[in-house]
Amino acid sequence: MNFIGLAMAFTAFIALMLQVEYQNGFDKHYATAGRIYRVDKSGIDRSDVFRNILPRGYVDDILTSSSHIAAGTISCPYIGEVVFTTSDKYGRHSFSYECDVVYPDIFDVFGVRFVEGTAEALDDLQKVAIPHSLAEKLYGNESAIGKVISHNEKYKFGTFRNSELVIGAVYEDLPANSQFDNDIYMNIGSINEGSYGGANYICWILLDTPDNKGVVENNFNDNYDYGEGTWLTDIELTPIEEIYFNDGENPRYKTGSRRQMWLMICISVIIMLIGGINYTTFFTSLAPMRIRSINTQKVLGSPIGKLRLSLLTESVIFSLAALMIAFAIIVPVTEWLATNSLISTEFSFALNWRLTTLAAAVSLTVGIIAGLYPSFYVTSVPPAFALKGDFGFSAGGRRFRTAMLILQYTISFVLLIFVMFINRQNRFMMEYECGFDKDNIAVVEISQNHTLDKGDWLRERLSALPEVIDVAYSMELMGCSDNYAVQTVSLNGEDIKVFTFYCSANFLDVMGIPVVDGRDFETSDIGKAIMNTRMKNLGGSIGVNRTTGEIIGQTAPVRMNSLRNAEAPACYILLPKEYGALTWTYIRLHDGCDKSAAVSKINEVLSEMDPDYIFDVHFYDKVTDQLYAEEKHKSVIISIFSLLASLLSLIGIFGQVLLDVQYRKRDIAIKKVYGAESDVLLKEGLLKYLAIVLVSFAVASPIAWYSAERWLQGFVERLPVTIFPFAVSLAIILLLTLAIVALQYLRAANADPSKTLKTE
Questions:
Q1: Per-residue confidence at 759, pLDDT binned at 50, 70, 90?
Q2: What are the boundaries of each domain within the chain?
Q3: What is the rounded CA–CA span in Å between residue 598 and residue 594?
Q4: CB atoms inside a 10 Å sphere around CB 380
Q5: pTM here?
């Protein structure tokens, strides 16, 4: 049990530290590492979306402001996945892939190398650069250069670009722990050229040397003409390596949590600590069984140093053998974890050699520590006592085993309670009532061309299905993000960032969002707005014209962002389909209808509209899963490894109970001879372990409370820290322990005392 437990501990340690290594190495692997910066507006709160989402004209001014900027690019984080169609020797097929519009210098900024072609290919506005992984997926060993991919988006890539794009370059993929995405890249062309209004872009620059960071900032800030009434400010340069762990970053960037990383480090250390404790306790507990042999060798002249080295070597070999088991299974284990999005990367001995070395060092250390104490302990006992005495009942041995039991129980309680709080909060978020009727709404994204040419047709065809009530459209998917289109609105003399959610006239009705004041949209209300309760509370008024449009009504409370943040002020704005932006389709189904049959019929209509397009019809449970995907993945991986740590603790506890009963067999037999009943002996054993469990629970409770409270502080709306998880964890561990103790003590108490006294 201890050997398997130690192998499991090493496996878990490597898997967790693999994720830590992935996070800690974020954006540190570029060929141009140390010189890449994102341009931010200074003096702006980090949580403000417009801190580093900038207008194109402003970006262009920054890029030309200093000779110390070796290369610079623009990128747009809002395009997302686009469905393309291509042909190969097997025929036409479609695929969905992330896209971005950039300056060709993006490959110089991030130090990206090319497999085929060069960045100059993007000088042609009809050509694109794709990652090597996509080229292999689409065309195998064939050259991708010159292949055509076609899309169905009228405005997304600019009206100057036609629907057929030519692959002009194939670049090497960068690792996933990069702000640089392995997207399909194309030249931005004239999109928003010279604009200082709409902010949609990130500015990345490569400096000639990091020493000139301050020079570039000061040169721009001291000489730039901002004009009157502008919302633009001075700039500051943020090293790309600092973005991942920046608290409050725009969710459009890849971000992580130092708190989570340290939590994983702590869990990995705890797992190894438990494995080491079990292992050390195991070797120490063997002392009474081998002490006579060891001291017989001492009496016969064997050197103490040789005996100690022998015991230490045995311990190290045992530990290294457990590590070899872990190395044998770590690749498939991390493949499974990565496939299920529980960790971000798979283990490779070639790529993760530092982690391999660390694991070997930890294994060697565990083996030495585990063997060091028992080897000195056993060989230090006077030979006469060792040959005649009962070492199993020594006070030092009992104290050591009791201390280890309390430590293991404490760890088990803390981890079990913490996991229960994480999962209760996740369930609370998933089941939270957001203010709209999402149970019977199917959603699917269509293209801009579909919206323009087939939007009315699609609504008519879907509404004719017996399962469908009505169909509505919006520009963004509601309830899937903390970040939507934003406008700054003055409310009660204060500038407030307001979500502007563009939709069709029947959107609120289809979503089941009641208008509690004013009125709902009519088809002629183009550009008019209906505010939510949060905006009303901040000073919004019906009948007032604002940058969001004339406000004609107010909805009941609706939460379209996550519980990580406060409910945001929002306006629903009526947008005509001629803009081609309303690509998200909401399909309201009748209560009680067969959803599976309804989805099949919806897919038939969509296929009739466009047989080559990839449609993904799904319900709001998937949308909610996406919104809380990060928390879900965190909770699952923390839960898995925390429960593993608890399991290892219980394995150690079970082993200690077995050894304790083994040492007490003679004591129990003597009491039986003198008339003690089995139930009295059982009660004696149960009371001993009951006391240990209760002491451990008292030690663990404040630690668990503090850990849960810190975790829950990351949510604006959260569950309180209640006594329920504490009571449940106490009941689970207490019942398991008492069951194990009762079983072993009853077995010993019911054994024939005469046989025990002859052998013990």
A1: low
A2: 36-73+196-244, 77-187, 258-429+629-759, 441-627
A3: 6
A4: 10
A5: 0.82
